Amino acid sequence: MENEKTKMTRFDKNFKLSAVKMVVEDGQKASEVARSLGINPNQLYAWKAKYASNGDKAFPGKGHLTEISALRKKLRETEMERDILKKAVGIFSKPTQNDSGL
User: What phi and psi values does residue 101 have, to the nearest 5 degrees?
Assistant: First the structure.
């Protein structure tokens, strides 16, 4: 028993949402819900915290999809800012009619 590795069980989005909503919306105790579902109460508390901060987007699936989408959004914004600055440099570096070589 000591040498056995604990197998991590993965739960799908619907399972997590249902478990959290039993606590949040139905008013059941988290420890009782966790016991009835056969999960660790700390896991349910973690899911509840994720749900509180992200709502229905709390459990995107495998990986860190929320982080990736936030980084992609930041990249798009940065690229737009860069393009605006490039255009501004082009506009301000054009010679004017008064700069005809005195």
Answer: 85, 65
